[in-house]
Specification:
Elements: H1 2-11, E1 27-29, E2 45-48, E3 54-58, E4 70-75, E5 89-90, H2 97-108, E6 116-120, E7 124-125, H3 128-131, H4 137-163, E8 167-173, H5 175-188, H6 192-197, E9 198-204, E10 210-212, E11 235-239, E12 241-243, H7 260-264, E13 277-279, E14 291-292, E15 296-299, E16 311-314, E17 318-326, E18 329-336, H8 355-360, H9 366-384, E19 400-403, E20 410-415, E21 424-429, E22 434-439, E23 443-447, E24 452-458, E25 461-467
Parallel strand pairs: 2-16, 4-6, 4-8, 8-9, 9-11, 12-18
Antiparallel strand pairs: 1-6, 2-3, 5-7, 10-13, 14-17, 15-16, 17-18, 19-20, 20-23, 21-22, 21-24, 24-25
Helix pairs in contact: 1-4, 4-5
Length: 468
């Protein structure tokens, strides 16, 4: 219980005010926003030749506000100015709105070719929440659970109010990918209906996706596999980019897949077993043999070479391959092709050098490097996978409510509809121990005597309960 109380004291310093996603100001991009930059954003791509002339134009339809039957839910990476040095969450008011909006455009806007584009604002976790070994699993998990609650709330609002049975592309980068990985475990992994709607989850910048050696299933998720075919739906794509010549860094064991508290809370299926697991990256386009990288995509604002379109592409400027040096060290390795006749800029060169490069390689350019390969695979999936029919039921974000939360020990669990007498609620502590079981009712009072963090579990999802 001492650890539980410590966990409570740490998380209680965070903000518990839930972000309201019915308020469109809490979305960077949403089909219903009146001011929606992505709606009129030119998605065409100018392919630039070695002499800097325009070789060709790849036309890309912008369907960010069109209901095509496919929706994109995008979660942006960490973008903070002077972030806190301790594990915590950063309020929306303290985040660089313009910078994040621009980051989403250059990394994710091309996915709007498939349909409506949803990108929520969320209370970001500080980098220390993922990386700082000085802090305990519980401390880091507390920040990540608080941050994840925003992503879950945003997705459930989208699912309730907009999805209507559409197929779903989940996509994000870095922190965004880690949070989507939790969402997949929390809402999709044991829900066959949602899994049937998942086209793919593109988790760019996730260095560690684990499974038993030789397998592509059963690590971070129980029922959602890593993609093993280009046209396979309902699976995971992940990649992380480094320079070919650089040494793959040592394992970062502070990340969520090593955090037992997150596994106990249900946001990771199981943690990594270093003796039996391997890490897997997407190797369906680029295998262990070097090949030309097709269409490195960059924002033209950096170079003004495209003559109008917002994106330019450099074809065969780099070599790429899936590099593996051990069971737990595998990356997408990139090599610049030296050519005296090639005037095209090496967009990756400014990243080289310094501690961040040694630890992260070309991480900030993960999407520019692999976006074309990802788009090709999504095209194949949409052609191959049968269209999902409109679902008869959705997960409801308001099915089970807890209030007040946090509380001093007495709180109420309320539902917004008559539910079966067989529906059961379970309350567990941070170690997974069952504290209380009850049948679900329209309204009931619950008393917990010990301070700490608890999790309310039901077939409708999970909620965090704080007693102080």
């Amino acid at each position: 219980m001492r650890k539980s109380i410590l966990f409570f004291l740490l998380i209680y310093n965070f903000s518990f005010a839930q972000t309201d996603y019915s308020d469109l100001t809490n979305w960077y991009y949403h089909p219903d926003k009146l001011l929606n930059l992505v709606e009129n954003y030119d998605l065409d791509i100018a392919v630039i030749s070695k002499d800097l002339s325009i070789d060709s134009l790849i036309e890309v339809d912008n369907q960010s506000t069109t209901n095509t039957g496919v929706d994109v839910f995008w979660v942006h990476p960490t973008q903070l100015i002077d972030p806190p040095s301790n594990p915590t969450v950063v309020e929306l008011s303290d985040q660089p709105f313009a910078l994040i909006s621009a980051t989403i455009l250059v990394q994710g806007a091309l996915l709007a070719k498939y349909g409506r584009f949803f990108a929520p604002r969320y209370r970001q976790a500080s980098p220390a929440s993922f990386l700082n070994p000085v802090y305990s699993d519980s401390t880091r998990a507390a920040a990540l659970i608080s941050t994840y609650s925003d992503i879950k709330a945003a997705f459930l609002h989208y699912l309730d109010s907009h999805n209507n049975g559409n197929r779903i592309i989940l996509a994000g980068h870095s922190q965004g990918s880690f949070l989507l990985a939790m969402l997949l475990r929390d809402l999709f992994d044991n829900n066959p209906d949602l899994r049937s709607r998942l086209v793919t989850a593109a988790l760019g910048g996730m260095p560690y996706v684990h499974a038993s050696s030789g397998s592509y299933l059963g690590g971070q998720w129980e029922n959602i596999p890593l993609c093993t075919q280009k046209n396979e739906c309902g699976c995971i794509h992940n990649w992380r980019s480094f320079k070919e010549a650089q040494t793959i860094p040592a394992l970062v064991t502070t990340l969520p897949v090593f955090n037992q508290v997150l596994a106990d809370s249900g946001l990771v299926y199981r943690t990594v077993n270093l003796a039996e697991d391997w890490f897997v990256h997407d190797s369906l386009i680029y295998s262990a043999e070097s090949a030309y990288l097709r269409y490195y995509i960059a924002p033209d604002a950096n170079y003004n070479l495209g003559g109008g379109p917002n994106f330019i592409a450099f074809d065969s400027l780099y070599l790429a391959r899936n590099k593996r040096t051990s069971a737990t060290k595998t990356v997408l390795a990139i090599d610049y092709i030296e050519d005296a006749t090639d005037q095209r800029p090496n967009d990756l060169l400014p990243l080289e050098g310094g501690l961040e490069f040694l630890l992260s390689g070309f991480h900030t350019k993960d999407y520019h490097i692999y976006l074309w390969a990802l788009l090709n695979q999504i095209d194949a999936k949409l052609d191959a996978c049968a269209t999902t029919s409109v679902a008869t039921s959705n997960i409801k974000s308001t099915t089970v409510n807890v209030y007040p939360n946090p509380s001093h020990g007495t709180f109420y669990i309320e539902t917004d509809a008559a539910l079966s007498n067989d529906d059961e609620l379970t309350i567990v502590d941070v170690y997974g121990r069952v504290v209380k079981k009850m049948l679900l009712a329209q309204s009931q009072e619950v008393q917990l005597d010990q301070k700490g963090i608890y999790f309310l579990l039901s077939k409708y999802g999970r909620q965090t309960i704080v007693i102080y």
